[in-house]
Design goal:
Length: about 325
């Protein structure tokens, strides 16, 4: 039966041999002296690369990001050039269908060896392996405390969280629109109250009362997972995520009726109807900012927007 461990793409080339097992190093593998050491060699000094034939399956649902799948294919090819006994098969899963695909894969014992998957999806299907001791040491030395906490479920770490979470959701904004509104682009909002204040100053209407520039663009259209992901980061400002967030503590039920989620939903609604700093007629946030139809939005660090100043948005509780 295949077991699954959630692993960050960036470390795929370094860590995948560990999951395959084996103890002997082959002559074809470049010595550590001839190349940069991989994390597994740094944090598990006794490790040697296996010599037997290994085939690894890696699945992801990130094909909506231009170039992501091609990058994975190149990483797999480069890795096999260093380790000829290892073949890595890459499969892309449609984002909108990924939960259905994962559920079927776990049920049929056909899940991949390595993947990029939501932790709760794997845990609900009892498909994740705890991270090994050397990986825990690596995370403790390199992750922020917040990111490290998200890697643990009931004091057990499962794989690696993604770099997006480690860096946090970011506030992307147009410096030029800040200046037009008389705001200092080097002094962005840091609390919920300041966010509302800035958004109100950045919102524009025409003579007929139609919004021509939103203070902030919200993710309201697209795949359910994408919408939920963007909403959850704002909802997190209204709850103690160290206790529970999406699911209850034993992962048997969802927690979306909790007080924090309700407050998050009310805040979303208020931005549209009470504060009138956004609306649902805007394009998706990336396009809205690029076209000057919105001045701010939230997105993961992996997003790249021209002419945008990127800052960390601290807890806004």
């Amino acid at each position: 039966m295949k077991k699954l461990i959630m692993v960050l793409l960036a470390v795929l080339v370094s860590f995948s041999p560990l999951f395959a097992g084996g103890q002997e190093e082959t002559a074809e593998v470049a010595s550590a002296e001839d190349r940069e050491k991989t994390p597994i060699e740094i944090y598990n000094p006794g490790f040697v690369f296996p010599s037997e034939r290994i085939v690894l399956d890696y699945w992801h649902a990130m094909d909506s990001r231009p170039g992501f799948h091609d990058l994975l294919l190149q990483i797999a090819e480069d890795y096999s050039a260093i380790h000829p006994n290892v073949t890595i098969n890459i499969r892309k899963i449609p984002n909108a269908q990924q939960r259905t695909v994962w559920a079927a894969a776990f049920e049929s014992n056909s899940a991949p060896d390595v993947c990029f998957v939501e932790a709760q999806v794997g845990l609900l299907n009892k498909g994740l392996l705890p991270a090994p001791d050397w990986a825990l040491k690596m995370m403790e030395e390199n992750f922020t405390p917040f990111a490290l906490s998200l890697s643990k479920i009931q004091d057990t770490s499962y794989g690696w969280i993604s770099s997006e979470i480690d860096s946090g959701q970011m506030l992307y904004y147009r410096k030029d629109l800040f200046r037009e509104a008389g705001l200092d682009p080097e002094d962005p909002p840091e609390t919920i109250e300041e966010l509302i204040e800035y958004a109100e100053k950045l919102t524009k209407f025409d003579d007929k009362g139609n919004m021509t520039q939103a203070g902030i663009a919200l993710r309201y259209a697209g795949g359910a997972q994408g919408i939920g992901d963007k909403f959850s980061k704002i909802a997190a400002a209204f709850m103690d995520t160290s206790k529970k967030f999406f699911y209850n503590t034993d992962y048997t039920d969802v927690n979306l009726d909790g007080a924090g989620w309700v407050k998050g939903a009310e805040f979303f609604q208020d931005l549209v109807f009470k504060y009138k700093v956004t609306n649902t007629a805007l394009p998706i946030p990336i396009e809205a900012l690029g076209q000057g139809l919105a001045a701010m939005t939230f997105r993961a660090v992996s997003c790249r927007l021209a002419r945008m100043r990127i800052i960390l948005m601290p807890s806004m509780a």
